[in-house]
């Protein structure tokens, strides 16, 4: 992208170094280029060039997504995340620098133009088929079964008291309710339910804040990065394991060569069972949510967060006391954490984890995601995240339509030789452990011999 047709006066060489990188360049070099022109960050959307340097501070999806796409054509990412593009473009007008010259190709970094064109045609086809339209009854019933489980736990206490058997039964019921509320907040967070995104945002805060005791903004800023650059080192927060785990085939070798040994990584497939599934939600997520709300001065989400604890203690402290109620809550989150980790990681940890190769949207998502077999139980148990491929390609598509989109996505992948991977549920869980074991062995070999 060396030339630009615009109303502003732009140096073509400056544009080149701001918008162009090569696959072979290291992430440090690319970050240096992004700081060109006094830290300006430029990106391309539908052949128009925008300077988003200042907008990153106000971007509703968080500043990091824009930073991750600085210097790239982000047309498909823009389309995937914005339901009302005409509204968004009002904010983009002041950021416009100009347009690419007619001689410049739309794709960058050597991407396959035909593949990108066919993928965009598929998206339009799915829109015409109505697969981006929501079935209100589906989400009404889904929310209803969560609220029913919450009410059932209180009814059991009121009727039978707080004996051990009833307490264990309530723990299971609340775990199911919390896990399913987690999948439902995910739907509203992706703006995939209402035509008016304002209602999605409100329901998202209600479910993740009032029903789960977390923060909508914390989830948005973290999760959207994952969708924008899944399994990309330094860009996807979901593969940042705080030096406790090393994932994929690249990071373990890099750690080994640098003689980094924060943990005995060759044993990570064993200690994963102690630090991953049991601790992610009750320890790490809880601490990170509070820290984020405090640092961001997010008092609205904090109010929703407090409403959860107020409601919870109001219902359960008469039977367990405040300390006992908090113990029950921690136990429920301990159980939910196992459910959450195995479901969310079965699609990603065994897949390709690497530095940014600047692939097209379809190729990038298929490298990082796989599907789990379709069945009524798998759909319910995973919140339809067993259709992770379709969800990543079209994050605003209502989940009840993934099964209808799946054959058409598979057909496109077959046309271009892109692997569309589908596994069984148990196989996918075993693959998590096998992947951790392989990564640990790569680390040990590099640590000892390189």
Structural summary, described in words:
The protein has two domains: 4-110, Cytochrome b5-like heme/steroid binding domain (Flavocytochrome B2, Chain A, domain 1, Roll), CATH 3.10.120.10; 111-450, no CATH class. It has 20 helices and six strands. The model is unreliable at 1-38 (pLDDT under 50). The strands form two sheets. The protein has a four-stranded antiparallel β-sheet with strand order 1-4-3-2. A two-stranded parallel sheet has the order 5-6. A hairpin with a 2-residue loop joins strand 2 and strand 3. It has helices at 12-19, 27-34, 36-39, 63-68, 75-81, 85-92, 113-128, 136-160, 164-189, 197-211, 216-228, 251-257, 268-275, 280-295, 299-345, 361-368, 376-382, 388-393, 402-415, 425-449, and strands at 4-5, 42-45, 48-51, 96-100, 371-372, 422-423. It has 450 residues and is mostly helical. The two termini are 39 Å apart. The longest helix is centred in the last third of the chain and has 47 residues, at 299-345. It comes from Hemibagrus wyckioides. One of its GO terms (biological process) is fatty acid biosynthetic process.
Characterize this entry briefly.
The chain is mostly helical and 450 residues long.
Brief descriptors of the model:
Flavocytochrome B2, Chain A, domain 1, transmembrane helix, mainly alpha, 450 residues, 4-stranded antiparallel sheet, Cytochrome b5 heme-binding domain-containing protein, 4% strand, single chain
């Amino acid at each position: 992208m060396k030339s630009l047709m615009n109303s502003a006066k732009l140096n073509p060489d400056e544009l080149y170094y701001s918008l162009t990188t090569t696959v072979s360049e290291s992430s440090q070099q690319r970050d240096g280029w992004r700081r060109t022109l006094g830290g300006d960050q430029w990106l391309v959307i539908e052949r128009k060039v925008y300077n988003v340097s200042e907008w990153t501070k106000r971007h509703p999806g968080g500043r990091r997504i824009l930073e991750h796409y600085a210097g790239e054509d982000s047309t498909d990412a823009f389309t995937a995340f914005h339901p009302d593009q005409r509204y968004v473009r009002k904010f983009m007008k002041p950021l416009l620098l100009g347009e690419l010259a007619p001689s410049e190709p739309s794709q960058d970094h050597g991407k396959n133009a035909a593949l990108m064109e066919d993928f965009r045609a598929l998206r339009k086809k799915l829109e015409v088929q109505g697969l981006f339209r929501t079935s209100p009854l589906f989400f009404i019933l889904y929310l209803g079964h969560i609220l029913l489980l919450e009410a059932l736990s209180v009814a059991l206490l009121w009727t039978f008291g707080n004996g051990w058997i009833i307490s264990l039964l309530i723990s299971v019921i609340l775990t199911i309710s919390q896990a399913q509320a987690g999948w439902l907040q995910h739907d509203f967070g992706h703006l995939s339910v209402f035509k008016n995104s304002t209602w999605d945002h409100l329901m998202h805060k209600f479910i993740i804040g009032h029903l789960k005791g977390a923060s909508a903004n914390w989830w948005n800023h973290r999760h959207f990065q994952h969708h924008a650059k899944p399994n990309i080192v330094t860009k996807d927060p979901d593969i940042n394991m705080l030096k406790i785990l090393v994932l994929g085939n690249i990071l373990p070798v890099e750690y080994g060569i640098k003689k980094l040994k924060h943990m005995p990584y060759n044993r990570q497939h064993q200690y994963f069972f102690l630090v991953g599934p049991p601790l992610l939600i009750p320890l790490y997520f809880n601490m990170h949510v509070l820290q984020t709300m405090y640092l961001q001065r997010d008092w609205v989400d904090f109010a929703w967060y407090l409403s959860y604890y107020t409601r919870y203690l109001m219902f359960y402290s008469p039977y367990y006391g405040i300390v006992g109620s908090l113990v029950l809550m921690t136990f429920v989150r301990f159980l939910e954490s196992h459910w959450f980790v195995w479901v969310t990681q079965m699609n990603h940890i065994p897949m390709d984890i690497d530095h940014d190769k600047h692939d097209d949207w379809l190729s990038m998502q298929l490298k990082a995601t796989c599907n789990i077999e379709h069945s009524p139980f798998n759909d319910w148990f995973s919140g339809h995240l067993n259709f992770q491929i379709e969800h990543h390609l079209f994050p605003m598509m209502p989940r009840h339509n993934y099964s209808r989109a799946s054959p058409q996505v598979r057909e496109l992948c077959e046309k271009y030789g892109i692997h569309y991977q589908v596994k069984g549920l148990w196989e996918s869980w075993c693959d998590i452990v096998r992947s951790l074991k392989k990564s640990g062995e790569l680390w040990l070999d590099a640590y000892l011999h390189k």
